[in-house]
Each structure stands twice: as structure tokens, then as C-alpha cells.
């Protein structure tokens, strides 16, 4: 696997990280190329990829699943999230539908 990924990387066709797991155990992980091309900071298995708006639909689906399981209502006060985000100030009566995606992680 290293040879294949290294070859793709050298051709400039692969830039990223690879993780392979079997039965819940990581059996291979490696970063290829750069996280930052200007500074030449290398990618590692711990590199963070900011996905921006790509994750919003997953957050929305999680909220809908929790609603379906009666674990929350769409009109629940956002303060249920406050314990995970103490750095954020909450307005009285603020609702879940005004939450930003990062608040549900």
C-alpha cells in the first residue's frame, strides 16, 4: 500500500491521509504530501481537514434522528448544547434551529 500511495503522490495525483481499519482496529495509517504547500508542513494521520459547509447536512440529519428518537424537539432551547461550548454566550430563548454546525460536535 505504501508503494501505491507513494507512487500516486509522486505523480501529483494523491494528497491526503489514509486510514485502514479492520474489526475496529487501525491496521494502517499514513499522511501523504503537504498540509500546507507554502510552509511544507507535512500531512499526518492526525491532520485536520476543514470541510466547511459539507458537514451541515450531517448535522441536520443528526438533529432529525434525535427528534425522531424523542431525545429533543426542534424548538428546544439551545442551552442543552452549552455544556459542550462554554465559550459561547447564549441568548434567552435561543432555539436549536439557530445553532451553528460546530455546536453539535
Q: Can you give a write-up of this model?
A:
With 105 residues, the protein is of the alpha+beta class. It has two domains: 2-42, no CATH class; 52-104, no CATH class. It has two helices and four strands; from the N terminus they run αββββα. It has helices at 2-10, 56-68, and strands at residues 16-22, 25-32, 34-36, 41-42. A two-stranded antiparallel ribbon has the order 1-2. Strands 3-4 form a two-stranded antiparallel ribbon.
- The class by helix and strand makeup works out as alpha+beta
Query: What is the helix tally?
Result: 2
Oligomeric description of these chains: single chain
How far the N terminus sits from the C terminus, by CA atoms, comes to 32 Å
What is the number of independent domains? Answer: 2
Spans where pLDDT lies below 50 across 5 or more residues: none
Element string (H = helix, E = strand): HEEEEH
Mean pLDDT: 75
* Main sheet record: 2 strands, antiparallel
| Fraction of helical residues | 10-25%
Task: Please outline what is shown here.
The protein has 2 helices and 4 strands; from the N terminus they run αββββα. With 105 residues, it is of the alpha+beta class. The chain has a two-stranded antiparallel sheet. Strands 3-4 form a two-stranded antiparallel sheet.
Keywords:
single chain, 105 residues, alpha+beta, 2 domains, 2 helices, 4 strands, 19% strand
Write the layout of secondary structure elements.
Elements: H1 2-10, E1 16-22, E2 25-32, E3 34-36, E4 41-42, H2 56-68
Antiparallel strand pairs: 1-2, 3-4
Amino acid at each position: 500500500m505504501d508503494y501505491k500511495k507513494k507512487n500516486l503522490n509522486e505523480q501529483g495525483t494523491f494528497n491526503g491521509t489514509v486510514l485502514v481499519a479492520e474489526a475496529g482496529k487501525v491496521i494502517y495509517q499514513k499522511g501523504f504530501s503537504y498540509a500546507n504547500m507554502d510552509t511544507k508542513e507535512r500531512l499526518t494521520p492526525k491532520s485536520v481537514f476543514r470541510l466547511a459547509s459539507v458537514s451541515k447536512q450531517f448535522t441536520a440529519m443528526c438533529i432529525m434522528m434525535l427528534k425522531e428518537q424523542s431525545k429533543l424537539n426542534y424548538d428546544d432551547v439551545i442551552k442543552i448544547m452549552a455544556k459542550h461550548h462554554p465559550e459561547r454566550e447564549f441568548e434567552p430563548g435561543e432555539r436549536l434551529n439557530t445553532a451553528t454546525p460546530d455546536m453539535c460536535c
